[in-house]
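seq as requested:
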Amino acid sequence: MAEPPAPPPEPTGCRFTLTGLLVTLLIIGILTGLLIVSLNAAKETANRSACQSDFCQLYKAMHVYLSHFGRGHAYMPHTGQAFWLCLDQCLDPVHPPTYASQSPACGNNSLFICPSTWQLGRGMDYLGPRKQTPPSNPSALMNGLLPGLIIGCDKPGNHKNGGNVLLFDGVTRFIGDPDYASALNQTE
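struct tokens:
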């Protein structure tokens, strides 16, 4: 009698096991988590840079304002947030059309809102100087004689672990929490 045919060999190729699938999903989850953390850090860095750019534009607008209205004054006539808001008064009849056409801040309300907290209708995110300085030296602003004086600062909470500050000489930098608290004392 003939022997029965041998059973066909079992395939040894592509078999997915539940364990293999779970390990694969776990690895994908870990990599996705790392990617999200990296993207959030990159987004915060980009927002800090955009915020510094806003401060630079506001500083330029301040110089345009002073060239038109300064006439021997070292500072704009306001403190705190009003310091920055007077830059946007280009539609006011007091300000001539030449100021409106040259000011980087005129009509650009996005300059006054920090990119990290950008929300419609939120209002201004930057603080201005606590006092009008220096009353004794009208040309100090134009000559940059007070490089360490802080004239602008982020509101608390705009950025993680600190905030951007604008110095009297136009330098903008990010400073960490301990120094940021002292910068807040110089602004309002």
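Residues 26-185 form one domain.
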